[in-house]
Design brief:
This protein has four helices and four strands; from the N terminus they run ααααββββ.
């Protein structure tokens, strides 16, 4: 089966080999399989798709398009790290910190690199 509809579980628990995704991501143009660089980012940061917020996905997509469409190069991780930093939101669970189940990883342009990077209009709220 290619797609599975979730059951009534509190914390997403996909079977091995599956990833969690949301219909609005695909309604806005996210396609599977995503770009290999995007898969590499998920692997490097040891996260799943559901851990990214919409602005994080937009940053990754814009970076890939900037590299391939404007610069004419393959996306390069060192260039990614030059421009971007991440923040991982955690919650306390029985005395230890764990990532929140969804939207826990924020991607943002480093403060000093903002003038060097292309302007991006990001959402200020993910409500609705």
């Amino acid at each position: 089966m290619e797609w599975l509809v979730p059951s009534h579980e509190e914390v997403p628990m996909p079977p091995d080999g599956y990833i969690i995704s949301f219909a609005p991501f695909h309604e806005c143009g996210l396609m599977i399989p995503p770009h290999p660089f995007f898969w590499g980012l998920l692997h490097h940061y040891q996260i799943d798709l559901q851990h990214l917020d919409p602005n994080g996905i937009q940053h990754a997509a814009a970076f890939i398009m900037m590299c391939e469409g404007y610069l004419g190069i393959k996306p390069h991780f060192k260039l990614w790290r030059y421009f971007f930093a991440i923040s991982l939101h955690r919650k306390k669970d029985r005395g230890r910190e764990i990532p929140v189940p969804m939207g826990c990883m924020g991607i943002y342009v480093w403060g000093q690199q903002v003038p060097e990077y292309m302007p991006c209009q990001l959402s200020r709220s993910n409500k609705g």
